């Protein structure tokens, strides 16, 4: 896909990975529709203003991905502004405690609503447009935690995103639509702020998103140092049971998360 002059929706544009992706797409010449919750309106509008310095159009459309009517409005706003939808990057996501027992019922529902159900709703809303065009690219952000179940409800939601991406890719392949999954490891974002500044920046994920819009890939794992752990997790799931089933490992996984809980 040629990105110069294309129109792209970035859902989760106010976050570290989302804003980096929006900038990378603008640098490639794409017009942008930026979505995030209404509480992030100021950040969205500020980002849209900076992107227009690249000579593209960018609009902010506050959107709650847990409300289908708001996703429908996002699609309508994109069509009203640009007449087509060439790409969707679903980057919205929330984390959880590594322990299911530490999560409340409300937290469990929210993680699935944003990470998985919101992703399904967004694809469901844009696919009729892309099918009519006979073209389009969708990129979903999963996680290496969607390959190894070690992060509670968050892992479960990202396993779901992986399965959802696979099935939709096969469903719409004949319609000229590419559906890709990016699985990041730890990168420098607000979600991982406690891990310090030594992590790779969100640009490594943004670049993978842009590359996957241009040339759809089944899955990309970034940074590349996570490739071997993912291969081992797929090949030897029983080994993960032994390692992460150890009580000392579980205590270590949950120690910091519990310390941050009020």
What's the topology here?
Elements: E1 7-11, H1 16-27, E2 31-35, H2 41-51, E3 58-60, H3 68-82, E4 87-90, H4 105-133, E5 136-141, H5 152-172, E6 177-184, H6 203-214, E7 219-222, H7 227-235, H8 237-244, H9 247-260
Parallel strand pairs: 1-2, 1-4, 2-3, 4-5, 5-6, 6-7
Describe the fold and architecture.
With 262 residues, the chain is of the alpha/beta class. The chain has one domain (7-231): NAD(P)-binding Rossmann-like Domain (Rossmann fold, 3-Layer(aba) Sandwich). 50% of the residues lie in helices and 13% in strands. The chain has nine helices and seven strands. It has a seven-stranded parallel sheet, with helices on both faces. α1 (16-27) packs across α6 and α3 packs parallel to α4 (105-133). The longest helix has 29 residues, at 105-133. The model has no long low-confidence stretch (mean pLDDT 93).
Give a quick set of tags describing it.
Rossmann fold; 262 residues; 7 strands; alpha/beta
Uncertain ranges? none
Percentage of residues in helical conformation:
40-55%
Number of helices, counting only DSSP H or I runs of 4 residues or more:
9
Mean pLDDT: 93
Task: Give the SSE order as H and E letters.
Answer: EHEHEHEHEHEHEHHH
Number of domains: 1
What is the CATH topology descriptor? Rossmann fold
Strand order of the largest sheet: 3-2-1-4-5-6-7
**Strand proportion:** 5-15%
Shape: globular
Count the strands?
Answer: 7
| Ends apart, CA distance between termini | 47 Å
Rg is: 18 Å
CATH superfamily: NAD(P)-binding Rossmann-like Domain
- Major beta sheet summary: 7 strands, parallel
**Which structural class do you get from the secondary structure elements?**
alpha/beta
The first-level CATH class name? Alpha Beta
CATH architectural arrangement: 3-Layer(aba) Sandwich
């Amino acid at each position: 896909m040629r990105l110069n002059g294309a129109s792209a929706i970035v859902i989760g544009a106010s976050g570290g990975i989302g804003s980096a992706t929006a900038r990378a797409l603008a640098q490639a010449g794409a017009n942008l529709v930026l979505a995030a919750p209404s509480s992030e309106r100021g950040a969205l509008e500020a980002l849209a203003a900076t992107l227009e310095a690249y000579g593209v159009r960018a609009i902010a459309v506050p959107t709650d991905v847990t409300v289908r009517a708001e996703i429908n409005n996002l699609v309508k706003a994109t069509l009203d502004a640009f007449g087509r939808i060439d790409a969707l990057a679903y980057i919205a996501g929330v984390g959880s405690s590594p322990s299911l027992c530490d999560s409340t019922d409300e937290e469990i529902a929210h993680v699935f609503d944003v990470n998985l159900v919101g992703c399904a709703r967004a694809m469901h809303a844009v696919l009729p447009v892309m099918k009519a065009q006979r073209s389009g690219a969708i990129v979903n952000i999963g996680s290496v935690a969607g390959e190894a179940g070690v992060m509670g409800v968050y892992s479960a939601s990202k396993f779901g995103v992986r399965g959802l991406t696979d099935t939709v890719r096969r469903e719409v392949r004949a319609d000229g639509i590419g559906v890709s999954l990016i699985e990041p490891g730890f990168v420098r974002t607000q979600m991982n702020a406690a891990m310090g500044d030594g992590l790779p920046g969100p640009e490594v994920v943004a670049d993978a998103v842009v590359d996957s819009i241009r040339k759809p890939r089944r899955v990309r794992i970034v940074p590349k140092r996570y490739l071997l752990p993912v291969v081992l997790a797929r090949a030897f799931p029983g080994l993960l049971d032994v390692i992460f089933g150890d009580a000392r490992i579980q205590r270590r996984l949950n120690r910091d998360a519990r310390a941050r809980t009020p």
